[in-house]
Write a structure and sequence with these properties.
single chain; alpha/beta; five-stranded parallel sheet; 7 strands; about 160 residues
Length: about 160
């Protein structure tokens, strides 16, 4: 696995604060990687302030690639990046208690992350486990894309 990962961050409105708390807690680890986020989530992460003893820091200012808002196509942009092998990890704090207007896009992200064997977390505990894995940054580790994808792509009709 490459040392710098491409990590996609997504959160439904009711879970944005939880994701921001997680990003703040893991700022040192996350700052070593390239971050992608859907619209508002990306803006909030870019503006995230972290207080130190001497000053206020903005560790993600100009370091998050912002995509469209999820319902306006951002979920699909991330889905395309998953299918193209451009995302190594997906952190998606989704609200499972509310039906989303773009539920099909949300379901598609989950399906694509599973299909392409992408590290995928939908809650803080799993996100912590992924980000602190000893395999993260292990040059000898390679994500295995399932054979079924190649078989499907090359099928004869």
């Amino acid at each position: 696995m490459k040392a710098t990962l491409n990590i996609a961050l997504v959160a439904h409105d009711s879970r944005k604060n939880e994701l921001l708390d997680w990003v703040r807690f893991n700022a040192t680890l996350l700052s070593k990687h390239q971050l992608y986020a859907t619209g508002t989530t990306g803006r909030l992460i870019s503006e995230l302030a972290i207080e130190t003893d001497e000053e206020t820091e903005y560790p993600f200012k100009d370091k998050v690639t912002r995509l469209l808002s999820g319902p306006l196509g951002g979920d699909q942009q991330i889905g395309a990046m998953l299918a193209e092998g451009k995302i190594d990890m997906l952190i998606f704090f989704c609200d499972n208690l509310a039906v989303q207007g773009h539920q099909n896009d949300v379901s598609a992200l989950s399906r694509l992350a599973s299909l392409y064997n992408i590290a995928f977390a939908t809650n803080r505990t799993t996100a912590d486990m992924l980000l602190t894995s000893t395999l993260l940054g292990d040059e000898e580790y390679t994500r295995i894309v399932p054979d079924c994808i190649q078989h499907y792509a090359n099928r004869k009709l």
